[in-house]
Amino acid sequence: MNVPLIVLAVLAIVAGFVELPPTLGDTDHFTAFLGTVLPALVTVPGRAMALARLQLVAGIVSLGGIYIAWALFLRSRAAMAAMAQQPAFQTVQRFWRSGWGFDWLYDHLFVQPLVWFATVDKRDGLDRIYDGLAWSSRAAWRALSDTETGRVRWYAAGLTIGALVITTMVIFL
């Protein structure tokens, strides 16, 4: 698992330098590449300071998260083990391990209403149309399967005669 993560991390860092904002070097290789097929990018003047503030906040939050992870997991393992025994931490851990409750939410928002509707709407009139199509297909198959003899020459002759009849009708009618 480590090798793919390292490869993805290196590729993410390299890909980050393909397009840099004006506050960090102003390279626009990707924009120039897409400029041949997409309209030109319109930038709002005077937004550099707001962009720099957002970048500073993102950097501080990222470094803060790295520091908290280091402090909890590497510096003081005993403190982390004690925190792991707390009921609130265990609840949060169960919630994260269950996929943030996404499966439960998806099941209650989409799957169960659809199953309920399908159960209620099981015998509607539209189904009779498709039941009739299936029945007529089976009846046609039974009727046509009786004409099967296994004689390929007769099949080929029948196809040829049918093609001649249709061609004659098209030409003379």
Walk me through the topology.
Elements: H1 2-16, H2 29-34, H3 48-75, H4 77-84, H5 87-97, H6 102-120, H7 125-145, H8 152-172
Describe the structure.
The chain is 75% helix and 0% strand. It has 173 residues and is mainly α. It has two domains: 10-100, no CATH class; 123-172. The longest helix is centred in the middle third of the chain and has 28 residues, at 48-75. The radius of gyration is 34 Å and the shape is elongated. The mean pLDDT is 87.
Strand percentage: under 5%
Overall morphology: elongated
> How would a textbook summarize the main sheet?
none
Mean pLDDT: 87
Number of E strands: 0
List keywords for this structure.
0% strand, 8 helices, mainly alpha, 75% helix, 173 residues, elongated, single chain
